[in-house]
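The following record pairs a protein chain with its ligand, zinc ion.
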Amino acid sequence: MSIDLLVHGGDVLTMDDASTVVRGGAVAVHEGAVLAVGPAQELRERHTAAEEIDAAGCLVLPGLINTHTHLAMTLLRGRADDVTLQGFLERVLKWEAELLAPRNVAAAVRLAVAESLRAGVTSALDMYWFHEAAEQAAREAGWRLHTGPTFMDVPGPPDGIAYEERLGWARRDLEARGPARPGHRPVVFAHSTYTLSPGQLTEVFALAREFGALVHIHAAENATEVATVEVQHGKRPVELLDSLGLLGPDVLLAHAVDLTGPEIAALARTGTGVAHCPVSNLKLGCGIAPVPRLLSAGVTVGLGTDGAVSSNSLDVLGAVRQAALVHKASGDPTAVGAEQAVRMATIEGARALGLGEQLGSLEAGKRADLIVLDLDAPHLRPRHDPWSTLAYAAHPSDVRDTVVDGRVLMRDRGLTTVDERAVIADLEALL
Ligand SMILES: [Zn+2]
């Protein structure tokens, strides 16, 4: 059979339920989807591919999924370091009001896409202003972006759309989308329980639910946020969402650092997911999310980088490493093992987005988002255990090839759809 792409010869980490590794395996790709995964020799005999990637000596795994970010904040990378979350927000909101326009967002997203492709990140959940510009930039690069309208009731929003007009604007956006493309679903962003009132949250979630959209919201990022929301509404953020009937399997919380036992139980009971952003949480001094407790309660946990102002990079592999390290600070070196952390960046991230049937593992019928990690470097030898290699030793620069929707967007470390020199020059000229 003639197929579009055959990636052959590496050890394929399928990330299926059993975390099956096919040594000397191959992935057959056709029309953007995984057709088969199996022994390389067998698949080479069965298929003639229009394009091949020789992955001998490499690891082949699903593309990494960034479940919480603000891509266009690459624009402000390095401008608000070593400050508290509240100090950070104060500065950033002011700059955003001055700086943001569709053209700047598009330029910053192009940079973020280039950085992500290089780091083996094949899709991201991106909450930001001017999402249409971000979508356009991602589409031009062939990269998978999960985005949609954002709600944040702040004075003078950068896009000039006051809260009162936003519901109508968002409805028109969701209606215009039509049926979701494979590997995508509609998304609505509610910024937080401190920038939206309970009434607004209820309206926004109702709109999202009408369209079967994922709702993504920052919640319980640090103790100050929790105290603020308690003063405003008499309840903690997760408690408030639960009391309003707004938790559910269609909801993904960003951060979820400051949680009580009953709140963890509420997330498990309602099937609400969490995007864990360990680097951002550490850098902003927010604390350490109770991920081992969330996992043992059965909560789906994906990994995010957050924006490049709060974590300075869109390196999901770095989040894997940090997730596998930071929870051990409690004194328990078995907390969040290497394999678990890699699953959080792939299949669990896909599940957190409600796209676990389409993304996150290399299994027949899923979208062909995959990466090839080059092991030909001293820091990756000897090759005892692929999970250990990925979680504790690999760097983004070890990613050699990146495929999104069956299309090779990075081959031998060269980007095929993004002119990164031009992208950098364009962004720097704007600043
Ligand atoms: Zn965020």
